[in-house]
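User: Hey, quick favor. My workstation is busy. Could you predict this chain's structure for me?
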Amino acid sequence: MKVTALGSGDAFCSSGRGHTAWLVDDAQGAFVVDFGGTALLALKRLGRAPEEIGAVHFTHLHGDHIGGWPFFMVDAVYRAQRRTPLVVSGPPGTGERLHALWSACYSTAAERPLPFPLHVRELSPGDEAELAGRRVRAFRAQHMTPPNLALSLRIDELAFTGDTGARGSHATSAPPLVRLRTNRTMCIPRGSS
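Assistant: No problem, here it is.
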């Protein structure tokens, strides 16, 4: 297994780091966690083809985590002419938000059927699903206030915290990060400036 930081910065690209995106290569292939606005460029700088990615897992729906989605899609449709299925997961509202972003950036393309199967699975804290051959478990992250939701994710033996930190009066309802971890888990926190 190999984990590559495509970006570990915040919305402001503090310290010159790109928006959040983690590339993971494992026995099932490649997947990413979050895909901020700078992620496609980072992939290409590494010489990686976006069509190698079989799944995209979003921790939450802030722009620095989902802003690269329309560029990923336009690359998949026009340059790569993708035909292989793509699995996407994220908190409730993910499907609608991603489609709105795709439509806002490339309205004509978004009106047409995709040339590949796109499977979107919305996860709530406590949900567990088998996605693209991996076990994905969702936990509430301390980042947003209801009705918005941020997730920390366990994907097989990796744990991704997304953005964490106290936010308003609802922060105390979030479970501690230790629930993400086991003695065989690698925890990938989002970097700070």
